[in-house]
Amino acid sequence: MKYLTLLTALVFAGSAAATDCSDCHETIDLTVHLEAEATLATCNDCHDMGSAHEVDMELHEATLTMTECADCHGM
């Protein structure tokens, strides 16, 4: 699945299909999240993304790191 994620990142990087976090709210402090080794699951734990965000879990794994998220999405 990591290979598919990487391939998807390369396809969508910089494209309109990859929604940026900052499209809807302020830019996040990526440094803090990287230091905490945050993953997509961490985002859900702290921010309850499920109630406000529809995430395609076929393209996104709960173990995706913030760095991997930032490859496709502006933070």
Automatic annotation (TrEMBL):
Native organism: Shewanella atlantica
InterPro entries named in the record: Multihaem_cyt_sf
Signal is among the record's keywords: yes
Extent of the signal sequence: 1-18
Taxonomic path: Bacteria, Pseudomonadati, Pseudomonadota, Gammaproteobacteria, Alteromonadales
UniProt keywords, alphabetically: Signal
The protein's name: Uncharacterized protein
